[in-house]
Structure formats: C-alpha cells, structure tokens
Prior knowledge:
elongated, secondary active sulfate transmembrane transporter activity, transmembrane, Transcription Regulator spoIIAA, STAS_dom_sf, 5% strand, six-stranded mixed sheet
Amino acid sequence: xxxxxxxxxxxxxxxxxxxxxxxxxxxxxxxxxxxxxxxxxxxxxxxxxxxxxxxxxxxxxxxxxxxxxxxxxxxxxxxxxxxxxxxxxxxxxxxxxxxxxxxxxxxxxxxxxxxxxxxxxxxxxxxxxxxxxxxxxxxxxxxxxxxxxxxxxxxxxxxxxxxxxxxxxxxxxxxxxxxxxxxxxxxxxxxxxxxxxxxxxxxxxxxxxxxxxxxxxxxxxxxxxxxxxxxxxxxxxxxxxxxxxxxxxxxxxxxxxxxxxxxxxxxxxxxxxxxxxxxxxxxxxxxxxxxxxxxxxxxxxxxxxxxxxxxxxxxxxxxxxxxxxxxxxxxxxxxxxxxxxxxxxxxxxxxxxxxxxxxxxxxxxxxxxxxxxxxxxxxxxxxxxxxxxxxxxxxxxxxxxxxxxxxxxxxxxxxxxxxxxxxxxxxxxxxxxxxxxxxxxxxxxxxxxxxxxxxxxxxxxxxxxxxxxxxxxxxxxxxxxxxxxxxxxxxxxxxxxxxxxxxxxxxxxxxxxxxxxxxxxxxxxxxxxxxxxxxxxxxxxxxxxxxxxxxxxxxxxxxxxxxxxxxxxxxxxxxxxxxxxxxxxxxxxxxxxxxxxxxxxxxxxxxxxxxxxxxxxxxxxxxxxxxxxxxxxxxxxxxxxxxxxxxxxxxxxxxxxxxxxxxxxxxxxxxxxxxxxxxxxxxxxxxxxxxxxxxx
Length: 696
C-alpha cells in the first residue's frame, strides 16, 4: 500500500467488527462524549476511558446517471394536465386567486384612500423624475400608469408601490445622454448635428415622415433599455437565478442608493440655478458636474434660484411634519401637488418664462401615443447597461415585497415578483416608457394610508389616467427648478443613512466598511462601476472573514456539558494532557495556513519540538562516548527527550462547515506532525459534509 493510500485509510472512519478497543494511529472520527462528572474526577483518575464506536448504516442511494435525471425532470415539467394548466395560469396571474375572494366591506375604503393619495403624489414625482431620466414629462406619467396596471395583474405583494424610482431614472438618464452624444445630438439643438446615428442610418419617424428629434431619440433609447431590462428579469425568473440578489446585501444596497443620491442631487443642481449645462457622464461625472456648475455660477437665473429656495422652504418643513405626525394624520399632506399647482399658477400669470427666461416643462400632450416596438439597432449598445438596471430593479422589488409581507403576515413568491417586475418593463417599453421598480417612500405612504390589496394600484392608475387625458397640458408653465426641488427633497431618506452609521459600526464594522466603499465608488466613479465595486468588495470581505477566522481553546463549564473559550470566560475546567481546539470557519485552501499556525500556537508546535529534540540529542551524543565506528544509533536520538505533558488534541469541528482537498491535506499534515512527537489527534462533532469528505 502506498503512503498516500495509507494516509487516506488512516483518515477514514473504520467500522470495528472485531471488537478492537485499542486506539489506531491516525485521526479518529468519533465523538468524544464525556460528562461533567468525568472532568470532576480527572484529578484522581487519569486513565483514559475507552471510546465506543457509533455504527451508523448509510441509506442506499439510487445510481441514476445525468441522462436519466434530465429525462425525469423533463417528463415531470413537460407533462400537461387540466389541473397543472390551471395551477400554472393561477400562478402566473395571481389576481385570479385573490380578486374572487376580495372582501369589499373590509378592504375597499383603505384601497381607495391609499390609491388616491399615492396617485396624487405620483403626478409631480413622475414629471420630476422624467427630467432625471432625460425624458419629456409625459413619459414619466406613462411609466407610472402602465406599471400600476401591470403589477395589479401579476404582483403578489399587497403593499408595494411599483413605479418610477430615482436611482433607476438616474441610470437610464446616463445611458440616454451617452447615446444622444454618440448620435450627434447637441444639448442646444433638438435635431442631431450630423443627422446620423452611430450605425450610420438616418433616424426617420415613419409615422410622421420627419427626422426624429432629440426627445424622440431619447425615449427610443429609454424604451430599448427598459425592454432589455425586462427581458433579463423574466429570464432570471424562468431560469430561477434570483439567487443573484443574495450578493446584494442590505449594507451594499443602502450604500449604493446613498451614493447614487449624491449623483442625483448633483444632476439637479443646474436646474436649481437655472443653468444650461451639458450632462456629464462616465467616471468622475459628479466632480466634473460641480466644476461646470462653479465655472458658470455667474450665469445663475435669479428667478429659478428664488423659486427653488421658496419651494425648499415649503417642502422640507412640511415633509418633516408629515413624518413626525404620521401616526396621527389619516393621510399625509400632499404638499408636492400643492407646490406644483401654486408654482404653475405663479409662473403662468407672472410670465416668468417670457420675462425672466425661466426654464419650464413645456407642452405635455394629452392621451396616449401609438405603441411602437423598441429600436432594435440600439439593443447592442444598451444591452450591457440593462444588466445592472435589471438587477437593481428586481433586488429592490423582491426585498421590499418580502419585508412588507413578513410585517403583515402573508407570503410572496419571489419568482413571480421577478415575472411581474419584468413584464412591468417589457410591456410598457412598447408604449414609450422607461424602467420601473418598487419604491420605498411611496410604499410606506401606501401602507400607512390603509392599503389592503393590490386593488389600490388600479385607483392610482385612474388618477394618472385623469391627468393624462385632461389635466396634463395645464402644467405647461411649471418651472423645471420646482421639479428639481421635488426630486432633491425625496432624497432625504437615502441621505439620512449617515445618521445610522454609528449604530451600524457597533453592530458590524465590516458592513459599515462595505457601505462606505459602495457609497463612495457609486458617487465618485459611476453608478454601474460603483455597484460592481460594491459586489466585489463585499465578496472579498466574506473571503477575508474566513481567511482569518476566530480560534480558541475550550474548557468545560462547571456542572454542565458546555464547552466555551478559555480566553473569553473564567473558571472553566480543563483536563491535564488534553487540549480542545475550536476553529470557527470552513477549512479550505485560503485559511489552511491560518488553521495550522493557530493550532500550533495554542497547543504545541510539533515542528519546533522535533527540532529541539534533535538539537538536544546531538548535544547528548557529543557529551557521551561515540559508539564504535562512529555510527549514531537512531533510536538513541528518538529516545533522548523527556515525554510531553500533552498527549491528546481534540479538534472541535462543529463550526467547520466543509473541507476541500487542501483542508484534508492539512489535517493529514497535522496528524503526521503530532504523531511524530507522540500526540494523538481526535476530531469531534464532525458534520455530515466533513465526514463525507474525509471518507471519500
């Protein structure tokens, strides 16, 4: 038998069928169960008790190859029956399950009230966030309308509000501006300076037989990104790869949203001051934008600046009052709508655009535009951008839906939520809309105003429909500075995360570092790069935690069978000649050296002991008379040392989740090193994964 196979044999659990009670050389895979009375008697009785093997017969596993497994899965999933078809339809359209059971008397008042209030809040926010996405105001209203209707049909959460979300609007806007520049559009002109797109083809609007202007091309880009994001989300639902969202921890998402909020605030600064500046894109756009703002600050439009300050003085205190008295108010004060109406009237009758050249929203058409397929030529250019947008969208939607479902005692299906948010992007992309997801602020308003079911989304859609059909043109004179103030005021929640940092630091310093790294990279680099940096850094932190895990020696708590760390607790009992070592991490290639160094440091280092023995043996040989012929007796070298007090090391494997090949080789080395100096090694509390790895 080779030395390698012998080592594997030593590491394997052996079923003793011959009644052999002697301890074999090697690592014994057995549970050392000694009661506290054994430890109380160790002073008088130092004899090691015999360990009885626990014989467990494994379940027989059927030998099915991969081909048979795939065939069985296909047969199971592809079989069709009336019951299965019914379940599939009901699963895909949750409305068919809950609407027939709708309790009209119990739920209708809360649903109507919450739907009305959210609809009133969405009108100014939809118009404001359209600027952030680089679109005309009417497209924001379209987006909120279609998202409310589709989620009502497909969603499983009763409380979340699906619509425009500031961070996604920012990401859409960055993509739109980049494609506008590539197509040759100038910020000062509505027509392309070259009349050509990046692929060299003339952009013709076939419905009106004219060249597509800047706003037309912007919504084409936005719709194409939205379509691809929806396709990705539905594909993730089909292939059940929602596990991607687990890499977006709460600290990472919070840091990303806060960092993106700084970028949003920066992008709206030019509207607050009434400056006509190009939108900066790419790495370092936040710093570049502020440089442009300060270089052109002498061109500030005083009318827009005064309007911005007045709106801030009204919006901020009222928003704070809404939050402070939300338990006493039946509904929050719709201060945003009040400000929009008042500002529109002041701008119209004061003729601020004509007299002071104030920037206004412009004409907002009524009704709906004819549906149009996304521009397929743009798909290759925006496909990569849509990946980050889709992941952020479904991660926020799923996390919010699960959070509110847990709070109110019902369940949601994460896979169906991915379908719902995916189709909330695919279908509206044919109707001149951009990307949507759940939004925390509006969801909190919806919940606090008595929402009971998804029916409130229909009421919200009816409010938006009324605006689209009748009221929209009345916002012609609304100043863009007012919309920018509304956007900035709604960033308060994300910017307030700084107040939670001391608490987060006390709970988990690693999460706080992840938050800071993601926030800074999202703000200073770009949103997409910031998200990637955050994910990579978060995974690196997980690896770092297992690379240098905690380890300790254990002692027995008096009058119990509980073992705790001797460095953390006092008055723990230990048995002479035995040390129990705990390693709190999986044992694999990254931390194998850390495992060995910690074990050798806290027990005895067998390598140093062997070196010391050899040196002592050499010194003893020099002092004694050399044997005839000068031949050194090997046995005299090995026996020329005093026996060690330590004779057994028990490795507590309860916190070792798994082993890889490097971990198994490390255990072999440890066993060999300690065996060479007469110390046996025992493994205790091995979980099934560790036992299987050692057996194989």
